[in-house]
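Hi everyone,

Forwarding the result from last night's run.
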Amino acid sequence: MKLSPSQERVKLFIPKHSGSSAFWWVLQRLSGFFVFVFVFLHMVINHYLTLLMETEDIPELANGIASFQAVQWKMQNPLYFWVSILFVVFLIIHMLNGFRMVVLDVATGHSFRKIFGILLILVGILIVLYAFVLNSTVLSLG
C-alpha cells in the first residue's frame, strides 16, 4: 500500500513497532512537550505577571512576599487554577510513564507488567485528585 506524502511525514515520528508500546512512546513525547509548555506558563504566571499587577490592593505582593492571601488571590483566576492543575496532570503522566518504561525494561512476566501498569495508573489518578482537592481547598479558604 502506497502512503501519501503527509502520511510518510507522520510515519517518521512513530516508532517502527506498533501496538500499545507505540501508544506509550507517543504519550511520553506529548506529555514531555506539555510539561515544557506548562513549566513556561507556570514561570510566567507566578513570577512575571505578579510584577505587572497593581500591588497597592494586595499588600502581601507589594514587597514581593507571596503570602497565603496572595496565593488565594491568584487562584481566584480560573487560568491560574487550571494551569496549575494541568501542569500536575502532565507532569504525573510524564513521570509515571517514564518510571513504567524503566521498570518494564527489566521486568519479566505479562501479569507483573499488567498489575504494575494498573498500579501506576491508580497512583497517578490519586495524585491528580489530591492536587485538585488541595487547590480547591486553598481557594475555598478565602
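The mean pLDDT is 79.

Cheers,
N.
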